[in-house]
Amino acid sequence: MEKILTKHPDGKKGVNIDKAKYDAIKKAIIECLENEELSYTLLTKSVKDKLGDSFQGSVGWYVESVKLDLEAKEVIERIKTTKPELYRLKIDNIR
Asked: Averaged over 34-47, what is the pLDDT?
């Protein structure tokens, strides 16, 4: 099983996760953010709905880990001026 070491936007240590699970969560996050900005809660719910019962493991934990990695890689960004904070794709770095 291939693993991937995630990054953290604050330079903290990332986590090693299964690459297939990383790819599935990443794809779902990007698809969920393609047309709208979402709070963390709505993003996690949307990813869970998109993956259905096919995903083995804690979707919430994987969403958090992959979301932080995508923030660090500047694929998505956190809008800190909203309450709750929202997430959106960064146009220049999609996929």
From this structure: 96
